[in-house]
């Protein structure tokens, strides 16, 4: 395994662990999701270089577009939950009370 692959795997794993273990604020959860998307984008961008195949730039661009949509939706949810509940703590958000 090359150093490049190890860094992508470790970045994705650390952000997934951060999402699983530090679930107190919605901002930290969104930041962990964004770092996971960044690791996936970098891995998809570097994949044609490591396999020496012709460059296919469609997949990284689609991943980047979905990541931007996910970030916009997450920020809209953050603003809406802060306005209705008063804070961004995840323990305040309960689906049974909606």
Task: Walk me through the topology.
Elements: H1 3-21, H2 26-51, H3 58-85
Helix pairs in contact: 1-2, 2-3
CATH topology: Helix Hairpins
Number of separate strands: 0
Shape category: elongated
Assembly state: single chain
The residue ranges in which pLDDT falls below 50 over 5 or more consecutive positions are: none
Indicate the CATH architecture: Orthogonal Bundle
Helical residues, percent:
over 70%
Structural class: mainly alpha
Number of domains: 1
Question: Can you tell me the CATH class?
Answer: Mainly Alpha
- How far from one another are the termini? 48 Å
* Biggest pleated-sheet summary: none
Strand content: under 5%
Number of helices: 3
Listing every helix as H and every strand as E from the N terminus to the C terminus, the arrangement reads HHH
Mean pLDDT: 85
Q: Which radius of gyration do the C-alpha atoms yield?
A: 17 Å
Keywords: Electron transport, Membrane, Mitochondrion, Mitochondrion inner membrane, NAD, Respiratory chain, Translocase, Transmembrane, Transmembrane helix, Transport, Ubiquinone
EC number: 7.1.1.2
Subcellular location: Mitochondrion inner membrane; Mitochondrion membrane
Transmembrane segments: 28-49, 61-80
């Amino acid at each position: 395994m090359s150093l490049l692959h190890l860094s992508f795997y470790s970045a994705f794993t650390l952000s997934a662990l951060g999402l699983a273990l530090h679930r107190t604020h919605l901002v930290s959860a969104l930041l962990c999701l964004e770092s996971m998307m960044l690791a996936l984008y970098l891995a998809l961008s570097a994949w044609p270089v490591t396999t020496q195949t012709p460059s296919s730039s469609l997949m990284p661009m689609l991943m980047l577009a979905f990541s931007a949509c996910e970030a916009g939706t997450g920020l809209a949810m953050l603003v809406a939950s802060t306005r209705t509940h008063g804070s961004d703590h995840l323990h305040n958000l309960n689906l049974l009370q909606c």
